[in-house]
User: What shape does this take?
Amino acid sequence: MASVINYTIATEAEKSPDFRRVLWTGEYTQLVIMTIPPGGEIGEEVHPDTDQILTFVSGTGKAIVSGAEKVVAQGDLVVVPAGKKHNFVNTGENPLILYTVYGPPEHADGAVHKTKEEADRLEEEGKDEPPTS
Assistant: This one.
């Protein structure tokens, strides 16, 4: 019998200081936790073939999806359909902590990016590609 994959997700997200940490990758989805420092952002991006669902664990920020803006805080969830330009900005004094589900996976299995700069560099170098099955 297969084991149960289980996380206390808010605890996992809050204990990670990393900008991005892939917790689990399946064939069709991926679970990632992120910590955006005060004044930081994910960066404007578009995932042409990937839906994304973000749930905010702590902190305050601004969600920008297809030009529309919304304040986000603990307990909020934002859906970003594939092909929509988006960004998430930390507007508070504390880290903006969240977890996100990508479908299909967007990052390399097990990837850990300590900073946004490291994440951007690895993506540009082609070293953060999702697994192909």
Q: What stands out?
A: Residues 116-124 form the longest helix (9 residues). The chain has a mean pLDDT of 95. The CA atoms of residues 42 and 88 lie 6 Å apart.
